[in-house]
Design a protein that fits this description.
Chain lengths: ~500, ~550
């Protein structure tokens, strides 16, 4: 059994339903219902108790006219009235005469003259020993006096003064006691509930007018011959925020689809990585500059050392670093340290995932990709990020060549929507030959985004792989920035809910 | 590595007028990038493997080959001299290696002197590993009285006026108060004796690898004859650094003379600029490149790269300039052939191999989770893995627990890896408290937890966190959403009351699935709300996405 509603409550509910739940101000409701604000408020409280509306009223501080302010809002400020009077005179007039003028009221004359002079509208000139009041050129300003304007508008608006006022005007209102601060009820939330809609419907059907159709109405057939109330479909509606995926995550999903379509199998690796996988297995000597503190985040806790689950591989990589082992390389000619290999770092390149994959998968042909976060010691700013998303892949198979590498790079670029690409030789410690793919971005020119290469024999041989392995990577951040039209890299992980709510999904 | 060169100087050395576009294009194909040109100075990025190109001379030398102005291995004649440098056994523990050479008849200008100093810095900072492996010194030859002695002495016994200085300082004072001493002193840390280079009259050349003497080491534009020394801890690096430096100095017409370095075990004459030799199989080259090049074609490509090559059958005999220190393997020759051929001429091919693509089961599951959360009306957010202790613990009203912490953070905002997502989600909501209510957000992402038994002493796990801010919240409604979420994954859950200082007592519970505790749900405590700046009631949950669910 639902609570019944009164006629006035019905008016409120209808109004709310009509506006599709749009919360109005108490003043607006009061004028639409032609009721006093207090009555509207008690109606709302009653409806809220019956759970027909969701209601929240908060108390806000507003500026409201004093009786003096209201008077001036209706008949004009004294100084304005003085200027009006003077401009109606053909010539200057003595102070005494002006003071006695009926419309100016003796008690406010001092105020009127004070402000009119302070504003530079009126000056006092001596003529034949008598003080004369004369309008200046600036007297025209009186017709657009902001303070007067505020008062006029406040009177129209139930004595309320708009909240955003320049400090100067605010100070004037207070110092002349034209306005005071008052606490005022404000609707924070007002919404008709489901129960409210039903109550309204049942009230209306008593009238023979159908609001919401109900299963009962349909079953009984009582709708036949009844009148359907019409709803306002052309009015404004409340903004809703559906659940949405993050634009960067959506972009990454598109890259996933593209690479899976190209026959790549996904792999993943840990974010905290051993230097062994992050660097050693990639033939980066242990004193390589890119392994120092300004290029890789080293881990304080847990303090390591980690474990290398591939003792034979460790041995072969150590030999390769020292003298080239059987790879045909001269190696780096230094004493390899297992302790360094077992240190922990935050992964600085997804290539670590590629070599981990190769340690387990040695059968050709193979295609692997990984999309994941990597880290490097940078401060976050518009163009730098300590955390970045890389998409990396390898293609292994008998007979693969440098020309094939360029072919794949072009195909990968095309699959993620890049049309123009050009190549230059590049350098990476773990690939030879190495190549850098530059893609053409509208408004940015050629941007280096697609590095690649053939893994060096010093990388593949210790892993027990004899076929060529082509490796490539895409810096997804830059690609996403172009696709999402973002200029600041930090915006990829935007901190603005408003932006996420407003961004269109295309 | 960035190298600034004067364009007019570069073009003079190349011996051909090039437009900027031509220069840019050729540098691009030679693995370099012309980044910008300002006031006649070109800023060129050189890849770190080509340390021989860290000077104007080196870049010009490479471009002369590439532009076919002068091809093949550059010829450097090394004259003999009576100069000797004597290495005493005492340096063996500190900095054992020395390599010296002479260049006579150089024509110096102040621009050039500045460039040589920069070149020397670049070479020692990269190739020399910030002077640790090798450091270089240049001196006015005519002021030195040979032979040179390389020995150690006590830090108080070494004294001289450091370069650009006016007062005599001891080695001990230099390490304590001279800028170079403070910067590089760490290399000599822990040694009671420091290395020193002196001449036969006891004049100090330098305190390697810290600083040279101002008396002998100050090069001016009237200097015509140079003495170059390299000391180091790695012999090949020491010798290579000398070769690269001397070859660059000789590019402007200087005459090179050798110095005999005498070790207790024997002597050697340096620099040795005769080419390195390597045999490479032609079929190997073609297998890697995907072409059917013949011997002469390969030889032409290599000549553009300043190498010589003769072929017989499948064997290529390649002569490589001494200054090329990046040739470790035949594959490095193959790359030079490709560059010499021109990356702009290589036609891409696409082999017709078939592989089946696919994603990991966890990736599919993660997408499903996100779909469900979006269906429940939550906005996905994306935050960083890197965060700080305040966000993870203090603001959550929790005592700190073990977590992955970085030893070299760049800022205190980002110095640990998150082990949970909810603190980041709450921080996000706090920053958006001015936005319209209700706010419903979620994040599905990786967290890192410490696990001493694991290979990396950590585990990377997938978590899901969601939170809701509204003018009124009801934890039982959130529980209903959580349960419907799990039901759609085919899982049944149980929530048992617990106590947790991040949440209001009596409104927080542990989430159990299949008898395993996988997460937490609760209404956030007002203290925590205040910490994050959230101005309305808030509730949330976080759970681990278990790998088993994916299979």
């Amino acid at each position: 059994m639902i609570d019944s509603i009164t006629g006035n409550e019905r008016k409120v509910l209808e109004l709310l339903e009509d506006a599709t739940g749009l919360a109005a101000s108490l003043e607006e409701l009061s004028s639409k219902l032609d009721m006093k604000i207090d009555s509207v408020r008690s109606l709302l409280e009653s409806l809220h108790q019956k759970e027909f509306v969701e209601l929240e009223i908060e108390s806000v501080e507003i500026l409201i006219l004093t009786s003096e302010g209201t008077t001036y809002g209706k008949s004009g400020l004294p100084e304005i009235r003085l200027v009006k009077f003077l401009s109606s005179q053909k010539k200057g007039i003595s102070i005494e005469l002006a003071r006695r003028q009926k419309g100016l009221q003796a008690d406010t004359f001092r105020v009127a003259l004070g402000w009119a002079r302070r504003n530079g509208w009126v000056k006092v000139s001596k003529e034949n020993g008598a003080s004369q009041l004369v309008l200046t050129e600036k007297a025209d300003d009186a017709s657009t006096y902001p303070l007067q304007d505020i008062l006029y508008r406040a009177v129209e608006y139930h004595g309320r003064i708009p909240e955003s006022l320049p400090d100067e005007l605010r100070d004037q209102l207070f110092s002349r006691s034209l306005a005071v601060v008052q606490s005022h009820p404000k609707l924070k939330r007002l919404e008709i509930t489901r129960a409210g809609v039903e109550a309204l419907a049942s009230y209306q059907s008593q009238d023979g007018v159908i609001g919401d159709l109900t299963p009962e109405t349909l079953k009984s057939g009582s709708w036949q011959g009844a009148r359907f109330r019409s709803y306002n479909l052309s009015g404004p509606v409340r903004r809703l925020y559906p659940g949405k995926k993050h634009p960067y995550a959506e972009f990454v999903d598109r890259v996933y689809r593209a690479l899976i379509g190209l026959g790549f199998q996904e792999a993943k690796g840990p974010l905290v990585e051993l230097e062994f996988w992050n660097c050693d297995a990639l033939f980066m000597p242990q004193d390589h500059v890119a392994r120092e503190v300004h290029d890789i985040y080293h881990i304080k806790t847990p303090k390591g050392p980690g474990k290398i689950a591939y003792p034979l591989l460790l041995q072969q990589i150590a030999k390769t670093h020292e003298d080239g082992w059987t790879t045909g390389s001269s190696g780096w000619g230094y004493q390899y340290s297992e302790a360094v290999a077992r240190r922990l770092v935050l992964r600085s390149q997804t290539t670590a995932v590629s070599v981990r994959f190769l340690a387990k998968h040695k059968e050709a042909p193979l295609r692997m990709f990984s999309i994941d976060r990597n880290f490097r010691p940078e401060k976050f700013d518009a163009t730098h990020s300590a955390e970045f998303l890389q998409c990396e892949g390898i293609i292994g198979g008998e007979g693969l060549t440098l020309r094939d590498l360029l072919g794949y790079l072009r195909a990968i670029a095309e699959s993620v929507g890049v049309q123009k690409i050009k190549f230059k030789p590049g350098f990476f410690p773990f690939t030879e030959p190495s190549v850098e793919g530059f893609i053409h971005m509208e408004g940015r020119g050629w941007v280096e985004t697609l590095p690649g290469g053939i893994f060096r024999p010093e990388v593949t041989r210790p892993l027990g792989i004899d076929f060529p392995v082509l490796a490539w990577g895409i810096g997804l951040d830059r690609l996403a920035m172009a696709a999402l039209k973002i200029d600041d890299i930090r915006e990829l992980a935007t901190r603005s809910l408003e932006r996420l709510r407003n961004i269109p999904l295309r | 590595m960035i190298v600034d060169v004067r364009i007019s100087d570069l073009l003079n050395l190349i011996g051909k007028q090039l437009t900027l576009e031509e220069l840019e294009e050729n540098l691009f194909l030679l693995k370099c990038e012309l980044e910008r040109v300002v006031d006649g100075i070109a800023t060129i990025e050189v890849n770190p493997d080509r340390v021989d190109m860290l000077s104007t001379e080196g870049i010009a030398r490479a471009l002369r080959g590439f532009l076919e102005i002068e091809m093949g291995v550059p010829k450097y004649r090394v004259y003999s001299s009576k100069w000797q440098a004597i290495v005493e056994s005492s340096v063996a523990d500190v900095r054992p290696y020395l390599a010296c050479g002479i260049v006579r008849g150089v024509d110096l200008t102040s621009d050039l002197i500045a460039e040589y100093m920069q070149f020397q810095e670049r070479l020692t900072s990269t190739f020399g590993r910030s002077r640790k492996k090798a450091s270089i010194g240049l001196y006015e030859l005519d002021l030195i009285k040979p032979p040179i002695y390389y020995r150690t002495a006590s830090p108080n016994a070494i004294s001289f006026i450091p370069l650009e200085g006016t007062d005599v300082m001891t080695a001990k004072q230099i390490l304590r108060s001279h800028p170079k001493g403070q910067e590089f002193g760490v290399i000599l840390e822990g040694f009671s004796q420091y290395p020193v280079l002196i001449d036969s009259e006891g004049q100090v050349l330098s305190l390697p690898p810290i600083i040279n003497s101002n008396d002998l080491g100050r090069i001016v534009d009237t200097t015509r004859n140079l003495f170059v020394e390299v000391t180091g801890t790695h012999k090949p690096t020491t010798i290579h650094a000398l070769n690269i430096m001397i070859a660059a100095l000789a590019e402007r017409g200087g005459r090179i003379a050798a110095v005999e370095t005498v070790y207790p075990q024997g002597a050697e004459r340096l620099p040795n600029l005769s080419p390195q030799r390597r045999s490479v199989s032609l079929s190997y080259v073609n297998t890697v490149l995907g072409y059917q090049f013949d011997g002469p074609t390969v030889a032409h490509c290599l000549a553009r790269m300043r190498m010589d090559c003769t072929s017989r059958g499948d064997t290529l005999r390649v002569a490589i300039p001494q200054y090329r220190v990046d040739i470790l393997h035949d594959i490095d020759i193959v790359e030079d052939i490709a560059i010499g051929y021109g990356f702009n001429r290589i036609e891409p091919t696409l082999p017709n191999t078939m592989t089946i693509g696919g994603e990991l089961p966890m990736t599919t599951l993660r997408r499903t989770i996100r779909d469900l959360m979006v269906g429940l009306g939550y906005q996905e957010i994306w935050t960083y893995v890197l965060t700080n202790i305040r966000t993870l613990f203090e603001k959550m009203n929790l005592p700190p627990s073990q977590i992955v912490e970085i030893s070299n953070p760049k800022s205190t905002e980002y110095h640990v890896a998150r082990d949970r997502l909810l603190p980041g989600v709450l921080a996000f909501l706090g920053e958006n408290s001015a936005q319209e209510l209700p706010q419903r957000v979620f994040e599905a992402g990786d967290v890192v937890i410490v696990d001493s038994k694991a290979e990396t002493q950590t585990q990377t796990l997938l978590h899901l966190a969601a939170a809701l801010v509204d003018s009124r919240v009801d934890i039982t409604k959130l529980k209903a959403e959580l349960f419907s979420f799990l039901q759609n994954l085919g899982l049944t859950a149980e929530v048992t009351p617990i106590s947790n200082p991040s949440f209001i007592d009596g409104r927080v519970g542990a989430i159990h699935v299949a008898g395993r505790k996988i997460g937490i749900i609760g209404e956030v405590h007002p203290v925590v709300l205040a910490n994050y700046g959230i101005e309305a009631p808030c509730m949330g949950f976080e759970l681990e996405i278990i790998a088993d669910w994916a299979s």
